[in-house]
Sequence to fold (198 residues):
Amino acid sequence: MEKAVTIPRILVYEEFDGHPIYRKGYKDFLSGTKTIEEINVGTSKLQFLIIACILKYLNRQLPESYFAGSGNLGLQITANTNFSADIAIFKEGQLQVGFHSTKYADTPPSVVIEVDIKIDESNYFQNEEEYFHKKTERLLQWGVERVIWVFSASRRVLVADNLQTWSFVSWDLPIPVIDDYEITVWELMLKNGFQVEG
Fold:
């Protein structure tokens, strides 16, 4: 009888209603074709650039009454639903943090920005579209005012808000982030050294 392979915690990206949502590549670990070290548990250079230039712009432009940060902030939606956020924007006083604040955030940020999908959806969702739709819906129901997804493969951006308005736009068009502040993802990428392949 074959011994069941235990999936290491580092390969769990999120938790959805008690179900672990694994990182892309976890099946390679299960099949023995890759070690944990060979599975990309970080972001790609492209994802990093997009996240970094959005964050750089927001921290320069937003007033001091806002705080934008990244680093895969853990968001505890319920006791058994925990999400990760590439970028989260909080209003002043929204996020209560002290020396003992070692758990996930249990207060919804005003805005969550996600760059690409980093999970293997096959063990719980039918496809990636179902995943990002359900994650977006849960974030909005929790109290997040706006959820933004940047999809680098299609060069499109999804903007969803708590007014039930969802729209896909090209990433070279301005999108609303918070209040009257907008970003144009493609413009920010070019300003921050993105190399256009000719």
